[in-house]
Write a structure and sequence with these properties.
387 residues; Aspartate Aminotransferase, domain 1; Aspartate Aminotransferase, domain 2; 2 domains; three-stranded antiparallel sheet; 15 helices; 12 strands; PyrdxlP-dep_Trfase; PyrdxlP-dep_Trfase_major
């Protein structure tokens, strides 16, 4: 069957720019500086055994339908109660992934006549949900509360402010306290995607909103389970009536088959381990600060060190806005035994292409140092970064 010409042209454009994506299975044995498995739970033997035991003790494994029809179980509801309790919220509602949760929340909650202000660096799934909403929407400059204040003049109806607590590509933190005060002061609904902070911050890993004790100021949090939790799926946590509203009106919740038991068991067992992972959480932050200190040691490195606010963040961006040079850099580092991945436009804005580096509890200081040496060694010296 012939493929439409315009699709072929678009693929060709990517080939010419050197930004064509393809699937690749990482060779085994590389040091992981790429995955979102921050705490090592995805590969934890203890967790795998716990999940297997839990699944074996249950009878059915397939969900058989959507939650509102045959797919609901006491198990799923108990898990939601546990999640709500853990995150210090009234209620939680499971979604099949973080992507679906964002689509499910933003397509249903802000409505015609309402306004959404969202950080321009927000994840594609938030933007997708916002596109599906009938509310009007405006981006504000990344982490710029003054710009948000300015734009609030355009607000009408119920007003939602959407941010991530830890940005997935820049690795910097939202000014959550400032945003929460502004939203309190002006009666706005703050929505925080905690995909990259869930499991990593707070006494037990409850996320950044809890670590900052802002649970009461934040209307809804999107918790995903595919990153530090080492599993798959997501939940929206917030007021009880929000849960009730979503299960009545959110189409990405209503019209899809529920998660199977194995996924629910993985989430439940991972959450049981989370409180005990204090050292792992501390280790991620220690390595992140170490990485930063190495960058600050060298002037050449400092010019590639990304932004303020990344110190202590498990996600670090090494910008190199030349796709061909960036791919070459990634290849060099991979050949030396380190799994790092280049991120091109449109996942990040053109001119801000980068290696997205992720630090994990199971990385060592020696590995981080070696990685820094390689970055330094193989990054072309004549590249200037846009401001
Ligand atoms: N939000 C953010 C900030 C993310 O980084 C991601 C995943 N890249 C998602 C949502 C989507 O989550 P999931 O992978 O569970 O669909």
């Amino acid at each position: 069957m012939k493929v439409p010409e315009r699709l072929l042209r678009q693929l060709e454009t990517r080939v010419q720019k050197g930004t064509l994506r393809s699937l690749s299975v990482p060779p085994k044995g590389l040091v992981d500086f790429s995955s979102n498995d921050y705490l090592g739970l995805a590969a934890s033997e203890v967790l795998a055994l716990n999940i297997t035991e839990e699944v074996e003790s249950q009878l059915a494994h397939g969900a058989t339908g959507s939650r509102l029809l045959s797919g609901n179980t006491r198990y799923a509801q108990e898990l939601e109660e546990e999640l709500a309790l853990f995150h210090n919220a009234e209620a939680a509602l499971l979604f099949n992934s973080g992507y679906v949760a964002n689509c499910g929340f933003f397509s249903a909650v802000p409505q015609r006549g309402d306004t959404i202000f969202y950080d321009e660096a927000s994840h594609a799934s938030m933007k997708e949900g916002i596109r599906l909403s009938f509310a009007q929407s405006f981006p504000f400059r990344h982490n710029d509360v003054d710009d948000l204040r300015q734009k609030l003049k355009r607000a009408q109806g119920d007003v939602y402010v959407a941010v991530e607590s830890l940005y997935s590509m820049d690795g910097d933190f939202a000014p959550l306290q400032e945003l929460a005060s502004l939203c309190q002061e002006q009666g706005l609904y703050l929505v925080v995607d905690e995909a990259h902070s869930n499991g990593l911050y707070g006494q037990k890993g409850e996320g950044l909103v809890s670590a900052l004790q802002l649970e009461q100021e934040v209307f809804a949090r999107i918790m995903t389970f595919g990153k530090a939790i080492g599993a798959h799926g997501a939940a929206v946590v917030g007021p009880g009536e929000l849960q009730q509203f979503l299960l009545n009106f959110s189409r990405p919740f209503i019209y899809t088959t529920a998660l199977p038991l194995a996924s629910l068991a993985a989430i439940r067992q991972a959450y049981r381990l989370l409180p005990s992972l204090t050292q792992e959480r501390a280790r991620v932050q220690e390595l992140a600060r170490y990485y930063h200190s190495l960058l600050e040691d060298g002037r050449a490195l400092a010019s590639f060190s990304g932004k303020e606010g990344q110190n202590g963040s498990p996600i670090q961006a090494w910008q190199l806005p030349d796709p061909v040079a960036l791919r070459r850099l990634a290849n060099h580092i991979q050949a030396a035994g380190f799994d790092v991945r280049p991120v091109f436009s449109p996942t990040v804005p053109a001119g801000k292409e980068r290696l997205r580096l992720v630090l994990h509890a199971y990385n060592t200081k020696a590995q981080v140092q070696e990685l820094c040496n390689l970055l330094h060694q193989h990054t072309p010296k004549d590249i200037s970064l846009p401001a």
